[in-house]
Amino acid sequence: MTKKILVVEDEELITKSLLKLLDAEGYNVTVVKNGRDAIEKVKTGDFDLIISDVRMPDLDGIETIKQIRAYLKRLNKKPIPEILITGYADKEKYEAALDLKIVDYLYKPFDRTDFLKIVKRNIG
What we know:
This protein is of the alpha/beta class. The protein contains 5 helices and 5 strands, in the order E-H-E-H-E-H-E-H-E-H. The longest helix has 14 residues, at 61-74.
């Protein structure tokens, strides 16, 4: 069965790169540009992994993950592993991700091979 990944990223160039890379590995990838759309996608679909940018307008990646987790918990659904990606060294966001026990936290730009290893390790 094909593994499903939800990518939450507001930068189009990054989105296209991740989509191409993950698609080439055989993953079924859904892309949204903001946290609110990510929450709605989780409500209507099942995903094996979430990859989210940290800094996005309106709802950042940390808050998006918190809201997705709260939704899944309310419905007694299993948690979805999350990988956060960012282009900014932000100690506060990094510590917030650690507090949430995010499975991985990557800084852009990242090596494609390392990224795919992290995806494979966390997708279950």
